[in-house]
Amino acid sequence: MSLSTHVLDTSTGLPAAGMTVELAEVSFDGKDRPIVTVTTDADGRHKFRESPGVGVYRMRFLTGDYLAGSGAATLYPWTDVTFSITGDRNEPSHLHIPLLLSPYGYSTYRGS
Question: Does the model's pTM come out above 0.90?
């Protein structure tokens, strides 16, 4: 399974370049396992080298730090997107997790 993300800042209409994104495996005993911390490229994208297996994962987007860098206040210091990989044969071989961001709202969906 390959994994990628793309962050767009809808308040500017531009990619969220330089945003920190943390990927972790979620454990229901409260001891999540960090996998990697990355930074989005100039196009607001990152393709993870890590290939997650079946499980539940979290991408934490450090939205507060990113928006503070442009002088914008925000309600959300970070945004967590939690998703599962089931290993079902109908599941795509590539999972894309986009984030549409503004200082006071965000949206996500399963991309392609």
Answer: yes
Residue type, 75: L
Count other Cβ atoms within 10 Å, centred on residue 54.
11
Instruction: Report the 10 Å Cβ neighbour count for 46.
Output: 20
> Which pLDDT tens digit goes with each residue over 35-49?
999 999 999 999 999
Query: For the chain, where are the E strands, in sequence order?
Result: 2-9, 14-15, 20-25, 33-39, 45-47, 55-61, 79-85, 94-102, 105-108
Q: List Cα–Cα distances, 73 to 68, 81, 86, 96, 97, in angstroms.
A: 6, 21, 37, 28, 24
DSSP for 80-99, written as a single string: EEEEEE---TTS-SEEEEEE
Nearest residue to 24 via CA among 47, 2, 49, 55: 55
